[in-house]
Amino acid sequence: MNRRPTITDVARTAGVSVATVSKAINGRDGVSAATLAHVLGVVADLGYESSLVATSMRRGRTNVIGVLVAEFEPFALQLLRGVSAALQNTPYDVLAYAGSVSAGDHLGWERRSLSRLGGTLIDGAILVTPTAMPDQTSIPLVAVDPHTGPDGPATVSVANVTASRTATEHLISLGHRRIGHLRGRTDLESAHQRERGYREALAAAGIPFDGALVEDGGYRTAASTPGANALLDLTDRPTAVFAANDLSAIEMIRVATERGLRVPDDLSVVGFDDIPEASSHTPRLTTVRQPLADMGSAAVGMLLDMLGGGDAEHIRMPAELIVRNSTSAPPG
Predict the structure, then answer these.
(1) Are 74 and 220 spatial neighbours (Cβ–Cβ below 8 Å)?
(2) How many Å separate Cα 313 from the centre of its chain?
């Protein structure tokens, strides 16, 4: 047989129905011991055992870790590098799966992904920014930066409040008092934590909070454009902006430059994440470096421990302010 055997080929060769083959390879009831042995023998003879489903039936494991994301954006891609590095020299492969591409929205993408992959294609899963942690699953799960904070059994996140406070304090130390904030998605706990850090830094410095200086950025380039324009449209515009992620910060710089403003001479900008574009951008972006690769590696370590019978835990990792060329003292 030159092509890859299908479940129909197995059924034809074994002389049973496709439904019987499906029951046999998925371990469902309704198949006698003799039929089960016969079907699995045909599976092996045809080479169908190379599929992950058949492998999971024979071994009870697929030796595949799933990394489930809403979409393949820079945050997720950096995490994937850490996951891949951590799985080297282990028996596990990694399957990266984007769950909201076909659905067209974020809500509930992790449940759809797990219903398709869990138990047959993957042994465990790392969920990147899940909207909610499923209540019951057949496989262990680790959440990275979940929407609602550490509400699941195992999570990896960053110290968002402390890091955002440090970023805002950097701008204050340069002499800025009119500091805007381009916040992230309002359905994400990390966005609320970063805004809280911004507010705490202002309060500690005796700078009154001004709601007009806070605009939605949505963690996306296109979503940041209206907020960036709104901040610069103010009669008393900010001399600095702390953006909740690097994509928003880079868009802030683009909008300012388009208006004839110079960064950092006329406007200082700080981001969050330290994606690769941050260091290659002109000007090079001052930002908070999330240890994204280390977070991916930590998630792998936790998940492998859970697969081995270990306990789940919550890990909160520190972040680091990286000062580059997009910040300076305010004009005048």
Answers:
(1) no
(2) 18
SS percent in the chain: helix, strand, coil, step 5: 45, 15, 40
With H, G, I as helix, E, B as strand and everything else as coil, classify residue 156. Answer: strand
Angle between helices 7-14 and 18-26 in degrees, nearest 10 = 110
Residue-wise pLDDT tens digits, 147-157: 776 656 789 99
CA dist., res. 67 & res. 69, Å (int):
7
Half-sphere exposure in the Cβ direction for 103 (13 Å, CA): 15
Q: Which pLDDT belongs to residue 84?
A: 92
pLDDT attached to residue 252: 98
Backbone angles phi, psi at 95, to 5 degrees: -120, 115
Sequential DSSP letters for 241-260: EEESSHHHHHHHHHHHHHTT
pLDDT value for 103: 47
- DSSP element (H, E) containing 197: helix 189-204
Comparing C-alpha atoms, which of 303, 154, 132, 167 is closest to residue 245?
A: 167
Q: 38 is written with which tokens?
A: 């016969």
* Cβ neighbours for 159, distance < 8 A, ≥ 6 positions apart: 316, 317, 318, 319
Question: How much is the pLDDT for 284?
Answer: 98
Residue ranges for the chain with pLDDT beneath 50: 1, 50, 57, 103-104
| Dihedral sign of CA atoms 189, 191, 192, 197 in order | positive
CB 53 within 8 A of CB 117: no
Which pLDDT belongs to residue 100?
61
